[in-house]
Design goal:
Aspartate Aminotransferase, domain 1; alpha/beta; globular; binds glutamic acid; about 40% helix; Aspartate Aminotransferase, domain 2; seven-stranded mixed β-sheet; 13 helices; binds 4'-deoxy-4'-aminopyridoxal-5'-phosphate; about 400 residues; 2 domains
Length: about 400
Amino acid sequence: MSTTIISERINNLSESATLKMTKLGRELAAKGVDVISLSVGEPDFNTPSYVKEAAKKALDDNFTRYSPVPGYPELRKAIVEKLKAENNLDYDVSQIVVSTGAKQSLSNAILTTINPGDEVIIPTPYWVSYSEMVTLAEGKSVFINSTIESDFKITPEELEAAITPKTKLFMFSSPCNPTGSVYNKAELEALAKVFEKHPEIYIISDEIYEHINFVDKHESIAQFPSIKDRVILINGFSKAYAMTGWRLGYLAASKEIAAANDKLQGQTTSGTCSIAQRAGIAAYEGGLETVLKMKEAFARRRELVYNLLKEIPGVKTNLPEGAFYFFPDISSFFGKKDPAGNVIKDSADLALYLLNEGHIATVGGDSFGNNNYIRLSYAAADDKLVEALKRMKAALAELI
Ligand code: PMP
Ligand code: GLU
């Protein structure tokens, strides 16, 4: 008999590693230690002032009551217009469901499509919460491993080989968290051709980093008409408009899936914060100017970190094409000892060592499905990045 009130569902759930490392970093900082956080993936910029003004106005205009469950019609219309103007995708307002962040949309999309035992194909490395969300829905994650040698991208052949009669969903992010990899149009088309042969499989396409792409324009897998109806497109305001705390995201999908998500939200969270939604309308109506400014800063920092990371003995990195992460291979340190004699067994040990000894917060790759790596977010000020990489180099040199 169970000795705890906590459900098996939650007992079997892992804590989010990104949030855990961020919490540990904050705790150490609260003790007076000068910790540099490269753990949480969030822009270090402030929300644009025109967006904040819209939120203040929303309060004054008394947008303080329950909103429609899938979001205000004006916000859903602004999203439809954005998807057309920026992504050349046609959606109707009834196909958009606004939520408390892309995280909720992802979780809802899985809960509304997965029956117990259904398989979800996830290329690794993947964002920490994907597999845990699948577990919560009693689905089974099936991983396709990729490494730095292929720039962490999968091939159509690998996708085909992972498909079984139980496959229900495929889910991925491009630009990818944690690797920064970006699938170009030809690569997406090749994957779409595989899905054409398997009309029972749906695709969750997480495009939250769409604007942080250093190589090309963003391409969505929803652009291929033969599979568009099966794509559940996820996006949000956190990264593009530096609005992580506002909790505003959405999905765009077939009317059937959108209606199911509306029903689920109606029984769980209801419509998300009315003020955040009014701010979201202003964000989209205001265009891309601030997003592009942030991208310039991220482009500069990417070069900076790349050059510093390449200089650290034992660390192998590529040059990520998008998002604001590096995911270097640090497996050469496994089996080495820190000055206190503790053996570094895996990426989680290394992340803890870097936090406690180097005072930089990172996240071990194990929670992204690839233990040989570590994730560094470069959404931090340039001087902090220089100092963090200096500390990392010094701390790693202490391992013998
Ligand atoms: N998808 C990916 C790939 C992410 O990195 C994140 C983290 N912010 C999310 C979704 C969730 O974003 P939101 O803040 O909109 O919940
Ligand atoms: N998506 C961000 C990250 O990967 C935010 C933290 C989280 O929600 O996991 O760090």
